[in-house]
Sequence to fold (416 residues):
Amino acid sequence: MDNLKKLNIKEPNILAMLFVFSMPNTVIASLTPGLIQLGKYFNISSSAMLCYVTTLAVLGYAIGPIIAPVIANCYGRKGAIFTGMLLIITGALGNIIFSIWLTDYSLFLIFRVISGLGAGIAITAVPAMIHDYYDEVNAKKKLFTVSGIYCLWPGFILIFCSFLSYYLGWECIMTFLLLYGLLGLAACYVLPETDPNRSSGGNALGLYIKSCFNLLTNFEFMLYSMIGALSIISMYFFISEAPFIIINKLHYPSNEYGYFAMLPYIASFFTLILGNIFAEMLTYRKCLLICLVDILFFSFLMLYLFLAGMIDILSFVGLSTLIIMAFSVLMGYSMNNAIKASSNKVAASGLYLFILMLLSSIVPDIAENFNSIGYLIYPLVLVVLGILYLGLISVYFIYIRKKNSISNITAVLTCE
Fold:
């Protein structure tokens, strides 16, 4: 940070970073409320075909973080964000052209991939920018803040786009995405370039490949990435399963579902804001243990309520909220520590996000193979995530103890 101040680089605008960080959820979730209208427009009745609108955007988002580090190392953090915004704008324009003017569903889906790709490239630069400028404590606080918006934003974007779809038609969502991308260019303009030491194309690619190899063989980075992936899986699994449980099993009115579905995201947001405030007091080890107790206790309690037939709307949403809150805190801490594990911050950010998206897309597909057990799949997956988390932090504490022992021995030998 001191070196950047000497170069007269201003502090990154937090609102601009929050705006960029909201891009993936905006691109992915925005069209969900208009899928039924979209299907009628394109004469598509298959729900699986309609799901490609979301899944292909997620695919683009997963690929984006792999490409972003090369762009960022060549053209800076702003260059990566600018490229991402241009791709989002291109995707939105393509969707407008191939829906309103030239009706072609296949080309429409291709431009959904492009939008997701742009969002993945843009978001990757933000954690790297934070670690470029801030010291360890302040970087942790900023990452808690942007992670809070990341958790909260899907709920707001679903409500807003539901309003657009209902009153103005699903086509207006494409116009909204276009305007959102243009505003993203303004956010890019406001943000400073925090990486004055850029590489040429060949050097950047070689440096990136080397950094990725080092990260994949870095035990701490992979451990933090796995913990972060469990957090994302818990959130995405709630998104995919909660509507069916609340509406079909608990028989709650569909028009009021959105209010309950927002609670975990709102709670996660405020939890991460509190994590921002207490970042200096709450060490990573304390955080791991507190979250472990929360996740294991409440996931097993939810499983018991499902098996006993005692689950209701308040217990389901309340327990889901408490579990997702704990995973949200873990996501904030794990992202911070994973990026610290490498000197190439943008490579660490990109690979971390890629691992998160890869694993979060695999688990729901695996869970679908167990649909025969019905709604019980939801608490069972949460219990499995809690047990996996227990295993990961057990490995973490063993690793830290071994690492500290080696450090102590080295210190004694050095003194001698």
Notes: The domain at 1-217 is CATH 1.20.1250.20 (Growth Hormone; Chain: A;). The chain has 15 helices and no strands. The chain has two domains: 1-217, 219-341+369-416.
